[in-house]
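TICKET #2291
ISSUE: user wants both folds in one file
ATTACHMENT 1:
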Amino acid sequence: MDTAPLLLWLNGNPRCSSSTGLLFELGPCAVAKKGVNVTYNEHSWNTHTNVIFLDQPVDVSFSYADEGTSVNMSPVTRKDVYTFLELVLTRFSKYVGTPFDIAAESYGGTYAPNIMLVIHTENKVLVAAHALNVAAPGLLHINLTLVLLGNGLTDPYIQHASIPDWVCEGPYPGYDDPDGPKCQVLWTKVPTCQRLVKSCYDFNSCLMCILVILYCNSQIMGPLLGYNPYNIHKRCDWQKDGDLCYKQMLWIETWTNQPSVKRVLGIDPTWDFGSCNMGVNQAFTMQGNGAHNSAVLLPDLIEDGVRLLIYAGNADMMNIDEGYMQGNKWWVEQFDTCFQKEFTVKKAAPWVTTEMGTLVGTVHSAGGGNETASNITFVTVHEAGHMVPYDQPKAGLDLMMRWLFNIPLTLNVSEVAAHMHSGEQV
């Protein structure tokens, strides 16, 4: 698909590979038979776009750098990813100028805004150089058009504070008595957590930001252990299902470590694939990286026309503060752009899938009128957990395709058909 858009997919958690997206959630194939083989995924996102599944930062899965090189902060990873994208477009020049989109999940809510910022900044440098007839050798314009953030960690100050509300009064409460002692204790922890987060924001102190992660994770998220963190409807047998609660994650390692797979990928046969790298995770934690506000990096991009979609499964219980549906909704409501007033005034509308005509969630948006998919949109996905493309594959594909082709998610099935027939999706 030479003319199809490019989509960069990033999985979350600074230690984990995008193989989860590739072989478990939305890639063309899904790992099967305990890792012996893969099967065709009929709901793959690459049906209408060219998806790049990128393992980053350095040392996650098979990714590597010169000996002694390490990465422990998003501002460093964004430079690496930008360099990678420039190399891809240089090598595959037929994609230069095609729409470029980013979809990121979980900790990707921190990664993606950083990557978007450097792309947007360098694009402006290229425009300025062109206006002055100054050469910018080696740099290509990346046609950034839209971003999707799924159950992401983006503004910890707001998202941490939402956790007791979700756990005690949400659609699937973890505690059955909001007036009981467990919920009351959780709510008392929020002010201290937010004071620490604000200090991290204000002073950018590494120590203060580390304290945010240590305190908020243990005092607000810690008491919730015992659930499957990715989907409250599911239980986790740690011995059978592994640390990430899905046996398919173990299958991915089995499949990827086959000698035949390594040969095709050009991997040193002595290297072992691991879905997650705890060393990378610790390096990011010890810099307090996950306590920073990534939402503040986005307003200029949105005002310049990059479209933003935030989606969240309403059964997500991810206990490292990324996923909670309520927190994602709260930070979008307070997102400081020219669309904020419209967003706060408008009410959520039902979202019905194009293929099945089934109600699968709600849509809250601003900008674009009724002719496009809007400038800022928040989507709640019913009966989905942390990994929406896995839990609700049909809904996830419908969401991506409509956003990609700028079709409002509020349209019903017949309206979508008429919209596509008229060619307005281009």
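ATTACHMENT 2:
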Amino acid sequence: MDEALKDSILNALEMVIDPELGIDIVNLGLVYKVDVDDDGLCTVEMTLTSMGCPLGPQIVNQVKTVLADIPEIQDTEVNIVWDPPWDKEMMSRYAKIALGIG
């Protein structure tokens, strides 16, 4: 996958806002890995801020919706993983400032 496509994917994923925190999933550090195969299947490996997050299915649907607008992507598979576990140190500087975290 070329850098331009990866940038397009990450830019699109910045449109997916975690409803609880009001920050996008990229700046929260929830997206661990993105890949697109030769058939246009985009695989997103990500986590959620907590295992019991009731909004997980909503976030997954939003990921699929925003990535559907990228011409190179034919389909999207979202894999929710819990390893490594998410913590606030994974957030970008922007997210930490927005949430008032050191």
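RESOLUTION: both attachments delivered.
EXTRA DETAIL ON ATTACHMENT 2: Strands lie at 31-36, 41-46, 75-80.
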